Model the fold of this input.
Amino acid sequence: MARYLVTGGCGFIGSHLVERLLAAGHEVTVLDDLSTGKSENLPEAAALIYGDVSDPQAMAEAMAGQDGCFHLAAIASVERSREDWARTHQVNLGGTINVFDAARHVAEQPIPVVYASSAALYGDNPAVPLSESSEPRPLTAYCVDKLACEHYARVADRIHGVPVTGFRLFNVYGPRQHPASPYSGVISLFASRILRGEPVTVFGDGELVRDFVYVGDVIQYLTAAMAQPMPGAQVFNVCTGTATSVNQLARLTAELLEKETAVTSAPPPPEGDIRVSVGDPRRLMAEFGFACDTSLRDGLRKTLKWLKTQTP
Ligand SMILES: NC(=O)c1ccc[n+]([C@@H]2O[C@H](COP(=O)([O-])OP(=O)(O)OC[C@H]3O[C@@H](n4cnc5c(N)ncnc54)[C@H](O)[C@@H]3O)[C@@H](O)[C@H]2O)c1
Done:
């Protein structure tokens, strides 16, 4: 049994991680400012500190007595990073540096950190599939900050001896996902419209292609990396390698909800959108020995079951 700090533990991915850690018998403290997360996402057995990762003092205090830190807190919104550039930078990069810094000071030996990076940092690199050695081409402030977190992770490792592992998450979906999430909020939006008998709206021709990963599959890598910290500030794609278009997603969602749906088209968002984002999971599988094996159909079924309990 260990004591872990989870930043952003009241959010979508964080709350699933907290559940898994508690089920394995660990003690969990969450640091969250509840900006997008909800305290009701958190099991009672977890302790909640209401605080801000961009505050170094709050970060250092939360880290005291911990054996490791999972860092998931971020303003995970490309739109917010456009509207409020300075603040998102303060949280997404500044907060991450605070985490690494607190991890080096908290005990005699630095404690391990596992953090969420993002596949969004590949930007408009058209390679299919995208591997960890594909060139990052970040297009937005959010993506630049995520890439910078990886560079600072190497500093944390090389200069300060903090064992750090990063995961470039692709489009994670599942129960408790945020409808406003740029990654998989589309599933919530489609489902609620289909359930209300309204048409779904896709950007452009709806042939944007994504690599959807079930949240339960993501958690297993985070916990495995914490259990066996590795040197070198390594980063891994977390993806299935399977391409799904937004049109396919709309059809599958309607099929699983046993409803008919019409599809209407809207102009793409102002920052443009990446047409194809599909990851190469081979390095992940070689290191950890298991794949993201929940099929989109099964994962979507679980997600829709939860969404139905949320939709009036
Ligand atoms: N969902 C995805 O598909 C996806 C893909 C790639 C990367 N990520 C990354 O994974 C992590 C978790 O994402 P998520 O989808 O669960 O998002 P989320 O918004 O549900 O969770 C983020 C959590 O961080 C908290 N938070 C935000 N700012 C904070 C601050 N200043 N101090 C303390 N807490 C703060 C929020 O309240 C929330 O609980 C993020 O780092 C995100 O960038 C997610």
